Amino acid sequence: MSNKPNVAPAKGKLGILLPGMGAVATTFIAGVMAVNKGISSPIGSLSQMGRIRVGKRTKVNKPYIKDFIQLQNLKNVAFGGWDIFPDNMYEAAVNAQVLESDLLRKLKTPLSKITPMKAVFDKKYVKKLDGKHIKKGKTKMDLAKAVMSDIRKFKKDNKCERLVMVWCGSTEIYIEEKPVHKTIAAFEKGLEKNDANIPSSMIYAYAAIKMGIPYANGAPNLSCDIPALVQLAKETNTPIAGKDFKTGQTLMKTILGPGLKARALGVEGWFSTNILGNRDGEVLDDPDNFKTKEVSKLGVLEQIFEPKLNPELYADFYHKVRINYYPPRGDAKEGWDNIDIRGWLNYPMQIKIDFLCRDSILAAPIVLDLAIFLDLAKRAGMSGIQEWLSFYLKSPQAPKGVHPQHDIFKQLEKLENTLRHLAGEELITHLGLDYA
């Protein structure tokens, strides 16, 4: 058995802060409440329902992850956050139309008690939204300090021992890394000067990381994925993770793509299109915001197939992604994929996928796991980019000069081995008769 790292116990209450309290956030909060009341199950949450193999195959030992290593108890959490609309969580959940009204009625009292704080919001980054429940400040640094003040008040009012923050807001317009993002000094000067390359998500990320609060980014915005905030995370001993919750169509790609590559099957093209009617769909109807999402989605298969290393199979691989706003569909997203593949002797074949999924239903357990595992990372003294949480993300954050890993099975193996390491157990390498 390896030396067990020093992991602080999960004592006291954990506060989970959510910038953006719309469909995903309300589905997550209501879901945890339903689980705690015993009226539903946390399906889709690896931290709550997943098992992990411990030791050699000769001994069947596969405990639940939540029993294998000490995680925060879901009955001892508090929820808070910010939104551009003032609706309480019951009203917001009803408006989101994700969860059945009967379930929401059972949770009306606790949901109604949670109201969002005024949000940091600038319409030029999300042109399709126009909420009025927003903070005022002369500079972006003033807004960041206002968020920090909110955080301190929330922690005190809810008697929380520790906090985590998970961005659940909308996709912002596409922004590339600029000089203001390079260093902490440049970034803080940019906050003071209202630099246009610092969107709202970066203000939240800065506030959290500056205070040592673990931060995860559930959208494809750069957010904490800039050198300045990565460095700040190291200086404040803060674990961070991003970008973009891996839910519907991309989840399928990271499952099926590695399988095709593993069998050395050629892929000529992969055409993907979606219809989506919730707030996210409306935001992505704007080309500038869709560009951010498109970059996130397109990078997945490029890394999995590695066409430069496998030119005979993927050199001419064509990948196209489309998202279409269709209000009648609501949160029930539908993703179509057409995949043209080549087999033995170059014979052509096709795969068709029609995934009728629920966007927020798939995202909610990701929010839970990121919050729970980031809290674990903080208690274990881990800081900076948490690559072991790439399992949950479309465009995983990775250190400069290192390509992100998109193969979901390799991601899962890294996540599980990280948990084994933190628990002081041997890593599983699948070498030798005992592990094969």
Share in β-strands = 15-25%
Oligomer: single chain
SSE class: alpha/beta
* Spatial ordering of strands, largest sheet: 3-2-1-4-5-6-11
Low-confidence spans: none
> How many helices?
16
**H/E order of the elements?**
EHHHEHHHEHEHHEHEHEHHHEEEHEH
Topology, number of strands: 11
Instruction: Classify the helix fraction into a percent range.
Output: 25-40%
Q: Distance between termini?
A: 19 Å
Describe this structure in words.
Helix content is 38%, strand content 16%. With 436 residues, it is α/β, with parallel strands linked by helices. The strands form two sheets. A seven-stranded parallel beta sheet has the order 3-2-1-4-5-6-11, sandwiched between helices. Strands 8-7-9-10 form a four-stranded mixed beta sheet. A hairpin with a 5-residue loop joins strand 9 and strand 10 (348-356). Helix 7 (140-157) packs across helix 8, helix 8 (184-192) packs across helix 10 and helix 11 (249-262) packs parallel to helix 13. The longest helix is centred in the C-terminal third of the chain and has 21 residues, at 359-379. The model has no long low-confidence stretch (mean pLDDT 94).
Features:
16% strand, four-stranded mixed sheet, 436 residues, 16 helices, Dihydrodipicolinate Reductase, domain 2, alpha/beta, Rossmann fold, globular, 38% helix
Describe the secondary-structure layout.
Elements: E1 13-19, H1 23-36, H2 46-49, H3 65-68, E2 77-83, H4 89-96, H5 101-106, H6 108-112, E3 117-118, H7 140-157, E4 160-167, H8 184-192, H9 200-210, E5 215-217, H10 227-235, E6 239-242, H11 249-262, E7 266-276, H12 279-283, H13 287-305, H14 311-314, E8 318-325, E9 334-342, E10 348-356, H15 359-379, E11 384-385, H16 408-423
Helix pairs in contact: 1-4, 1-15, 7-8, 7-9, 8-10, 11-13
